[in-house]
Amino acid sequence: MSQKPAKKDDLVHPIALPFLWLESNWLQSSLVWVLGIVVIGLSALDFFYPRHEYLHFAQMPGFYALAGFVSFVLAVMGGWFVIRHFLGRKENYWDEEAGDE
Amino acid sequence: MSELLTDISPALPIILAGLIAAVVPNNYVRKGLALLAPVLAGWCWYNLELGGTYGVVEFGGFTLETLRYDSISRIWSLIFIIAAFLNGLYGLHEKDRVTDAAGLIYAGGALGAVFAGDLMTLFLFWEVTAVSSVFLIWSARNRAATKAGLRYLAIHVLSGVLLLTGAVIHAGETGSWAFDHIGLDSPGGFLIFLAFGIKCAFPFLHNWLQDAYPKATVVGTVILSAFTTKMAVYALARGFAGEDSLIYIGAIMTVFPVFFAVVENDLRKVLAYSLNNQLGFMVVGIGIGTELALNGAAAHAFVHIIYKALLFMSMGAVLYRVGTVKASELGGLFKSMPATAVLCLVGSASISAFPLFSGFVAKSLILAAVAQDGNWIVWLVLVFASAGVLEHSGIKIPFFAFFSHDRGHRVREAPVNMLMAMGLAALLCVYLGINYGKLYDLLPFQNALYEPYTFDHVVGQMQLLLGAIFAFAFLVRIGAYPAEKRMVNLDSDWLYRRLGDGFARWAWLMLDRMSAATGNAWGRLMRGIGGRLYQVFSPIGALSRDIPSGVLAIWTSALLAVVLIIAYFST
């Protein structure tokens, strides 16, 4: 008697089953809004409880949030447009050396 | 028992265990040694008295100080012992005598270097680490690893040669082999600085790290990540603290790997770039040179070894189960390896310096020291690099391996011993992040007080991290986050793997042609001379011809007449 082949999700680890919502579309579409609100909220805290910093310009409200956002975008764009564009090569550039191990 | 182990270098049991493991074919014995030796080393460490120099050996006219135990070597030696134990646990499933032996000797060598009180002892252990660690790369037993291992060995032997040459010059100038503050005032000091810089992966001297580490075995890469570079950071802290150039070298180190890591497809190579970036923070701290900054470098080295090992372990587990760590081929693994995913996230949170994780209480010491120094440009660079760390190690690693697009890999969870090692490392990440006083108690300068959990610091850090995460979500949402591609990126290794190699081949070809041309010219010359001589002396040459005696008589008479004429007039 042949067994019915297991579906892909039958092989999901039992511990992972309650967390499959992590792949849901609503999470992906709403995450950016949730994060945006949290970042604005954290930045707004600076107006009520001004931070004390060694460097004065860092005391500007929302300084770190802005620094985080700009730095991240700069890092991604720098990697994408400079490193990949000018230094990116095909995977077999080093000939036989491609591959994991 | 404790008296018996007093004044014994913790390096000794680990190196001895490695030497025994090299000749023992039984896997269980080797694994027992891998776990027992670090425990024994820990016991030796515990019984040492702070502020003493032990294990002084006279050898070949040198006085070797093999065990200097002070406030700087204390923290570095402890974390090396912890790392050795974690590595032993992580590698329990692997049956490879070479990795077992090399891993232990390498860890013991690094410990020996940390305890070295003089430059000759440092050099000896420096070379032990170089030679033993290359076997961790070669253990992968493929062509790429073999070639990368050779490049790695060549660069590290060069570092050793520079160290020895510098030490000889330095000793000649100062009359002392002591390994204390060296400085850049002399040529010897500069050579030693360069030797340390190679191992510390300074810019343009760094690419051995990204070249070799990802090509080692699953266990080998984890072992490699702990020792060499942090040994070099220790050496810099000991020999070049307060050297201004280190501030700028370190700042560059924090920045350039960020861009490479963003578009790197091999996730273990991403971690190698991330390692380079983290070293930059430590180097900046050493360059600042204040007590707070040096405490920051030491604290950061301590926690970094743990969370970086955790991240390498998690990617090693993925490689072990899936067979690849290419981001373009991974995704959705949290469904198969949920425990590994959670432990990886702990490592990511730690390296990103989230509050309650170890990176938060360590990195902030360095940033505070830079801000106190008033160097706002370097401070801004470090803030940028902090967001960069979040990008490659905080988001990219867990996101592309465990979430992102489900590639349909349905594999088993990591082996139990791997999970135990990762769990222990994760526990330490959280423990040190919360109970940071235990970490601060180990720091070299107890007068430099710092409180990480202030409202200002927590809010500022959360702003930075969430601002960066928002940027990630925003870029993904608008489709401006680069997709992972199967490609490689050129780095400074191109200079010797392509340019240098091409030049060497061209020079060899030119030499070959020149040799041929010279040979031809020489041959023509020799043939010409030979031909002339042949024409004169050979059996058919001029001197071999039969000359009539009458002609000879005439010539002899003529010669006689010339002689007589000269004799007549000369008198």
In words, what does this structure look like?
The complex is a heterodimer of chains A (101) and B (571). With 101 residues, chain A is mainly α. In chain A, 49% of the residues lie in helices and 3% in strands. Chain A has two helices and one strand, in the order ααβ. Chain A has helices spanning 25-48, 63-87; one strand at 88-90. The two termini of chain A are 41 Å apart. The relative contact order of chain A is 0.05. Chain B is mainly alpha-helical. Chain B has helices spanning 11-23, 27-46, 71-90, 97-115, 119-138, 143-174, 187-199, 207-212, 218-226, 228-239, 244-263, 267-288, 291-322, 338-351, 358-373, 376-402, 416-434, 436-440, 455-477, 494-537, 549-570; strands at 52-59, 62-69, 487-489. In chain B, β1 (52-59) and β2 form a beta hairpin. In chain B, α5 runs antiparallel to α6 and α14 (338-351) runs antiparallel to α16 (376-402). The longest helix of chain B is centred in the last third of the chain and has 44 residues, at 494-537. Chain B starts with 10 loop residues before the first helix and ends with a helix. The mean pLDDT of chain B is 92. Classes of the chains: A mainly alpha (101), B mainly alpha (571). Chains A and B meet through α1, α2 and β1 of A and α6, α11, α15, α16 and α19 of B.
Short description:
By secondary structure, chain A is mainly alpha-helical. Chain A is 49% helix and 3% strand.
Key structural traits:
heterodimer, A: 101 residues, mainly alpha, flat, B: 571 residues, two-stranded antiparallel ribbon, 71% helix
SSE blueprint and pairings:
The complex is a heterodimer of chains A (101) and B (571).
Chain A: H1 25-48, H2 63-87, E1 88-90
Chain B: H1 11-23, H2 27-46, E1 52-59, E2 62-69, H3 71-90, H4 97-115, H5 119-138, H6 143-174, H7 187-199, H8 207-212, H9 218-226, H10 228-239, H11 244-263, H12 267-288, H13 291-322, H14 338-351, H15 358-373, H16 376-402, H17 416-434, H18 436-440, H19 455-477, E3 487-489, H20 494-537, H21 549-570
Antiparallel strand pairs in B: 1-2
Helix pairs in contact in B: 1-2, 1-4, 2-3, 2-4, 3-4, 3-9, 3-13, 3-17, 4-5, 4-10, 5-6, 6-7, 7-10, 9-13, 10-12, 10-13, 11-12, 11-16, 12-13, 12-15, 12-16, 13-14, 13-15, 13-17, 14-16, 14-17, 15-16, 15-17, 16-19
